[in-house]
Design brief:
single chain; about 150 residues; alpha+beta; 2 domains; six-stranded mixed beta sheet; about 45% helix
Length: about 150
């Protein structure tokens, strides 16, 4: 498979994971709201159970907003051109790992291969940012060579 096709498929896998996360968060938020509604009006101003349910809903709503931000970040990745250096949207191949600079979802398995979706804010990205094929970088006392970028 060509490089751009591989990036396109990785993006699709990441989108599906985010969609699943969104569905899960929405279900939990709805459940918390339903529980709070079923519990009824606050019994007094110190009704901690109802407040706990509403805090749970708010917490998951905030996490849902972060997932939606990640989805927006994915949409900024261009799959129309191969990249020549390590930057946002690059797929980097080293001897040990395949790294997709996108959002921090971690380990992705696709076609019996393992890829790592990382954010541009993590230390390994900072160590290799701007490098090109054949360049070496040091991360955790290990020298790593960039074998390919697309």
């Amino acid at each position: 498979m060509n490089c751009l096709g591989l990036k396109s498929r990785l993006l699709e896998v990441l989108r599906k994971q985010l969609e699943e996360t969104v569905r899960n968060f929405k279900a939990v938020i709805e459940d918390a709201q339903k529980s709070a509604n079923e519990y009824g009006a606050p019994k007094d101003r110190y009704d901690s159970f109802r407040m706990q349910l509403l805090r749970k809903k708010d917490m998951f709503s905030q996490q849902l907003a972060k997932v939606n931000e990640q989805a927006d970040v994915l949409e900024r990745i261009s799959i129309d051109q191969e990249l020549k250096k390590v930057e946002f949207g690059a797929l980097i191949f080293t001897k040990k790992q395949k790294i997709f600079v996108s959002i921090g979802l971690g380990r992705i398995e696709m076609d019996n291969e393992v890829y790592f979706a990382i954010s541009p804010n993590v230390p390994i990205y900072k160590a290799m940012e701007g490098l090109k094929v054949g360049d070496d970088f040091k991360f955790r006392d290990e020298v790593i060579r960039i074998e390919s970028i697309c």
